């Protein structure tokens, strides 16, 4: 059945390619390969409904948790096929244009990308909040906050810079950063607040988690970039360093940022095409909304309890039918 | 191959930029070598002058990094234009977008054809193909190999990867083989292509992922094109070499018998070059496979995605099966193509062989029809759990040791060297490079080397180039030390060599990312992690070259030394090592190129420098320009290091063929 489906797709690609012949090919020509997320075939039962939904999976556990739950519901309750693609945040947006990505399930702000892809190019649309409140910040292990008075105020960071020195940061303090693709104001903040620190890139969420755990267990000093919602807060006691408070528009010029990160209402972004033709799959994505606790419990199962994303999602779905029942379109 | 006359244009103009004083002193150093001074006097004096200059001028004329350098902005503007005109400009409407559609369609066709027979069918077909080309052994290898994809729980991902590799290889060969044949007959084209191919191979693969996304968006099409860029050079180079090596007298005989050029090509040159062209196909496949992981960053389907997932979750157990599957696929494809290539030219497969092969394929397909299309879940072997436990154990119990090794290397080697390189005036670094390259290779390589180095300054990346140079130098030093030790040991003890060989093979074929992660687990996100991973990556060719070099020292020389009563130790230090000098220098050259490639990947795990710029340029739109410039700077750095070591290699040998054979063996 899947093969027959593929053959149809292929035929679709070829005809589209030929049809586009005279006017040249635009970027979305041939999206047949991509968004096959057409409405479930009429008359069929739910289980036999066709279509593929392509979900971008950005590199952090919370995102993976949301994606896994949505994917599981799409596959089990609505009969779609889900393709998950491991992609960095900004790269995922590029996929809207030619149909290689249908859904981003947890978007952190990215006003510039929204302007480019939603307003200018009109290839993507917002699909509502995930219900999660997200905030990025600088954190230290709690024992440091207890031991060094005033360390959680950015004004005192320079005084304590020597504590955070590592072999990588030289004579400055180290500020540990995560995946190179994450939203980041660190360089500008250090420059504009005249902090005696150097950003050292850990490369992944895992590197941050590991350093934070070590910092608690072995009482090692650590200043690092992190975000909430995250299950780590239930495992490791952390204290947030207060930067100059966020005010509307203080992050407008990336070069001049000297304020904390804004608290974001995390939202879902889908391709225009998926919004128009995604049918029930789009309805479900739009309806999806849960709390930080929900996300943390799934993410915790994935990272710490040795479950695959699929198993963790299934466990949560089995335990919380009243939450997700409202998302599934009738 | 990279010969010294193939100097890229810009460096030659940039060279006069060096201050007259330093260039002059280096110049006199070169010309004075014929004077009657002891051999070590000149380098020593040179080193003394450099140290004195460093002490006197430290901290002056440095070129600190600026995130908004003009070249970055320029590239960013270019990017904005492409972004805005993708659906308007005729270049895109009538060319680029069609290329994307065509390549994407080709991938779909391959994927469809490979998925049709089901897992049993495809395994049967592979076994049949193996049997046909290489008999029972290869047939069995192929069957076991393809079977293992299912057992690893990665059947569908493996098929997607295979389809992507075949797409890229087919296109690479369609373009590469004719170009290679042409280049084999026209030295001028060969000279023209050499620098282009060099750039394609040294350019960090990350650096052209971002432009790929810009032109072809994400997905299998742009992944296949990115893979092609990487896999075409061996197709062209080795084919050209194959045609070139066809004995001149055979060509002469053919033309004197009145054959046209076309007839000579078809009836004489191509058949005689067949085995080597087979090697070209083989190497193209290997290169394409090595791109599979990186291509996953732009949504290439298949095994690479699992490895990326493992890397971002720091989960070795998640990425190891995918890494093993890639190695297995490489081994199977390698054996099949090599046995096809090395069969005697006019021998055709016997009838029985055809029958067995056909039976295997048909049987497999029939079985595939009968069995469910999905690989049975109960046959899947899952070992993520134990692997992760082993890693956690190693991390915990070796912590003190790994921590000490890392800190020692960082504090004793990396940090001092980096502060010297970044703290020196730019003209001093250039003068030293000029002097060293002049001494090892002569004026021409020296001019190219220093030109490449200076060109990184107007790119706005001088400081990061110096940081990367530090990491590369330390990594190469460690690689050479380890490689020499292992190579000497292997040359002296055949048993050790036999144990070591399969390990080296695996280290070379395993996608680099796979050992980036254990390194990360052991050493944290530091420059040392990148160095450690690049040492593992670069050691195999170094060990092989050293081993070969020492083995091939003429027995007569060894005999003579022994009969003069030299001890084992003397034999090694006074005879074997000096006589293997050329092989060792070649090993250094290879080691540098491979280390450089890996250090960029190390940008993902805290290596900093150019590597991080490239990685960041790929993942943050605002850094696109910087990432691209950093890719160019990496190429410049690579050419510079290549020229310095290559000169040393060629001074003592006939240039050309030897370098070629070693580099083509490399499975990056």
From TrEMBL, chain A:
* Family matches, as InterPro entries: ABC_Gly_betaine_transp_sub-bd
Q: Where is the ABC-type glycine betaine transport system substrate-binding domain?
A: 52-318
Q: Which UniProt keywords apply?
A: Signal
Looking at the record's lineage, which domain of life comes first?
A: Bacteria
Recorded GO cellular component terms are: ATP-binding cassette (ABC) transporter complex
Q: Recorded GO terms, molecular function?
A: transmembrane transporter activity
Asked whether the keyword Signal is assigned, the reply is yes
Signal peptide range equals 1-25
Asked if the keyword Cytoplasm belongs to this entry, the reply reads no
For this entry, the protein name equals Glycine/betaine-binding protein
Q: Which organism is it from?
A: Planobispora longispora
TrEMBL record, chain B:
Q: Name one GO cellular component term.
A: ATP-binding cassette (ABC) transporter complex
**Does the UniProt entry include the keyword Kinase?**
no
Q: How does it sit in the membrane?
A: Multi-pass membrane protein
**Which positions fall inside the ABC transmembrane type-1 domain?**
158-337, 465-645
Q: Which GO terms describe its molecular function?
A: amine transmembrane transporter activity; carnitine transmembrane transporter activity
| Pro residues: bias regions | 8-19
Chief subcellular location equals: membrane
GO annotation (BP), single: choline transport
The UniProt transmembrane annotation reads 40-57, 91-110, 138-155, 161-184, 205-232, 279-302, 314-333, 354-371, 445-463, 469-491, 512-539, 591-612, 624-641
Keyword list, A-Z: Cell membrane, Membrane, Transmembrane, Transmembrane helix, Transport
Region (Disordered) residue ranges read: 1-28, 648-668
Localization, UniProt: Cell membrane; Membrane
- Family to which the UniProt record says this protein belongs: Belongs to the binding-protein-dependent transport system permease family.
**Name of the protein in question:** Glycine/betaine ABC transporter permease
- Classification lineage: Bacteria, Bacillati, Actinomycetota, Actinomycetes, Streptosporangiales
């Amino acid at each position: 059945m899947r093969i027959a489906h593929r053959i149809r797709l292929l035929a679709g690609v070829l005809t589209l390619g030929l049809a586009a012949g005279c006017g040249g090919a635009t970027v979305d020509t041939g999206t047949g390969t991509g968004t096959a997320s057409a409405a479930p075939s009429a008359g069929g039962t739910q289980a036999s409904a066709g279509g593929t939904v392509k979900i971008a999976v950005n590199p952090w556990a919370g995102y993976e948790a949301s994606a896994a739950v949505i994917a599981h519901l799409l596959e089990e309750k609505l009969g779609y096929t889900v393709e998950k693609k491991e992609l960095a945040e900004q790269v995922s947006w590029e996929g809207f244009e030619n149909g290689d990505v249908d859904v981003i399930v947890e978007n952190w702000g990215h006003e510039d990308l929204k302007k480019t892809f939603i307003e200018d190019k009109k290839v993507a649309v917002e699909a509502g909040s995930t219900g999660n409140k997200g905030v990025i910040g600088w954190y230290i292990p709690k024992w440091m906050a207890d031991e060094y008075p005033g360390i959680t105020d950015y004004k005192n960071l320079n005084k304590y810079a020597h504590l955070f020195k590592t072999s990588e940061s030289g004579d400055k303090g180290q500020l540990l950063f995560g995946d190179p693709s994450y939203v980041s104001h660190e360089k500008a903040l250090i420059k504009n607040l005249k902090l005696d620190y150097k950003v050292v890139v850990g490369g992944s969420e895992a590197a941050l988690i590991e350093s934070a755990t070590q910092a608690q267990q072995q009482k090692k000093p650590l200043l690092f970039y992190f975000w909430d919602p995250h299950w780590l807060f239930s495992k490791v006691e952390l204290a947030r360093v207060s930067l100059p408070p966020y005010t509307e528009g203080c992050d407008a010029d990336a070069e001049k940022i000297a304020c904390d990160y804004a608290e974001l209402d995390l939202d879902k972004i889908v391709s225009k095409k998926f919004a128009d033709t995604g049918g029930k799959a789009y309805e479900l994505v739009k309806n999806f909304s849960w709390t930080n606790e929900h996300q943390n419990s799934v993410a915790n199962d994935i990272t710490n309890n040795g479950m695959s994303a699929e198993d963790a999602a299934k466990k949560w779905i089995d335990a919380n039918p009243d939450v997700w029942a409202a998302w599934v379109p009738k | 191959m990279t010969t010294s006359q193939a100097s890229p244009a810009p460096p030659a103009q940039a060279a006069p930029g060096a201050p007259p004083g330093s260039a002059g002193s280096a110049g006199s150093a070169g010309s004075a070598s014929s004077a009657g001074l002891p051999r070590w006097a000149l380098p020593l004096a040179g080193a003394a002058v450099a140290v004195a200059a460093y002490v006197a001028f430290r901290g002056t004329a440095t070129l600190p990094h600026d995130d908004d350098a003009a070249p970055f902005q320029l590239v960013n503007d270019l990017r904005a234009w492409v972004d805005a005109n993708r659906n308007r400009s005729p270049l895109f409407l009538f060319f680029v977008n069609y290329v994307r559609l065509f390549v994407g369609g080709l991938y779909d066709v391959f994927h469809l054809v490979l998925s049709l027979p089901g897992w049993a069918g495809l395994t049967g077909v592979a076994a049949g193909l193996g049997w046909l080309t290489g008999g029972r052994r290869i047939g069995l290898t192929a069957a076991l190999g393809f079977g293992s994809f299912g057992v690893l729980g990665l059947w569908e991902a493996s098929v997607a990867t295979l389809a992507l590799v075949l797409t890229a290889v087919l296109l690479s060969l369609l373009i590469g083989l004719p170009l290679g044949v042409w280049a084999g007959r026209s030295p001028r084209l060969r000279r023209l292509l050499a620098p282009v191919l060099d750039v394609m191979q040294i350019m960090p693969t990350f650096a052209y992922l971002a432009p790929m996304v810009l032109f072809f968006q994400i997905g299998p099409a742009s992944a296949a094109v990115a893979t092609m860029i990487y896999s075409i050079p061996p197709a062209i180079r080795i084919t050209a070499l194959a045609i070139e090596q066809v004995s001149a007298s055979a060509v002469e005989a053919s033309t004197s018998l009145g054959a046209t050029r076309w007839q000579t090509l078809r009836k004489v040159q191509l058949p005689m070059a067949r085995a080597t062209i087979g090697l070209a196909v083989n190497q193209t496949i290997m290169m394409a496979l090595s791109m599979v992981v990186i291509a996953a960053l732009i949504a290439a389907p298949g095994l690479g995605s699992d490895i990326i997932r493992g890397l971002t979750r720091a989960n070795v157990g998640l990425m190891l099966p995918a890494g093993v599957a890639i190695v297995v696929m490489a081994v199977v494809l390698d054996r099949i193509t090599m046995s096809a290539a090395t069969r005697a030219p006019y021998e055709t497969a016997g009838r029985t062989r055809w029958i067995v092969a056909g039976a295997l394929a048909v049987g497999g397909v029939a079985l595939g029809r009968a069995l469910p299309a999905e690989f049975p879940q109960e046959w899947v072997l899952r070992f993520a759990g134990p692997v992760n436990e082993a890693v956690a154990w190693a991390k915990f119990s070796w912590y003190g040791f790994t921590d000490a090794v890392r800190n020692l290397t960082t504090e004793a080697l990396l940090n001092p060297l980096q502060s010297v390189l970044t703290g020196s005036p730019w003209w001093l670094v250039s003068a030293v490079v000029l002097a060293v390259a002049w001494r090892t290779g002569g004026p021409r390589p020296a001019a190219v080397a220093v030109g490449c180095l200076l060109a990184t300054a107007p790119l706005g990346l001088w400081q990061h180039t110096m940081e990367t140079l530090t990491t590369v130098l330390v990594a190469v030093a460690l690689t050479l030390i380890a490689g020499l030790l292992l190579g000497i040991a292997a040359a002296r003890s055949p048993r050790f060599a036999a144990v070591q060989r399969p390990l080296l093979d695996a280290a070379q074929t395993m996608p680099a990312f796979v050992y980036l992660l254990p390194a990360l687990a052991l050493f944290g996100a530091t420059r040392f992690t990148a160095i450690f991973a690049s040492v593992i990556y670069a050691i195999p060719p170094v060990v092989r070259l050293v081993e070969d070099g020492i083995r091939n020292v003429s027995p007569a020389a060894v005999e003579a030394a022994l009969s003069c009563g030299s001890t084992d130790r003397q034999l090694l230090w006074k005879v074997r090592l000096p006589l293997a000098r050329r092989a060792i220098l070649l090993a250094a050259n290879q080691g540098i190129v491979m280390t450089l490639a890996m250090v960029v990947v190390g940008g993902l795990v805290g290596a900093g420098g150019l590597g991080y710029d490239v990685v960041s340029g790929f993942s943050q739109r605002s850094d696109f320009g910087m990432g691209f410039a950093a890719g160019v700077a990496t190429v410049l750095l690579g050419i510079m290091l290549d020229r310095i070591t290559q000169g040393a290699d060629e001074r003592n040998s006939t240039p050309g063929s030897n370098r070629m054979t070693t580099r083509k063996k490399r499975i990056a």
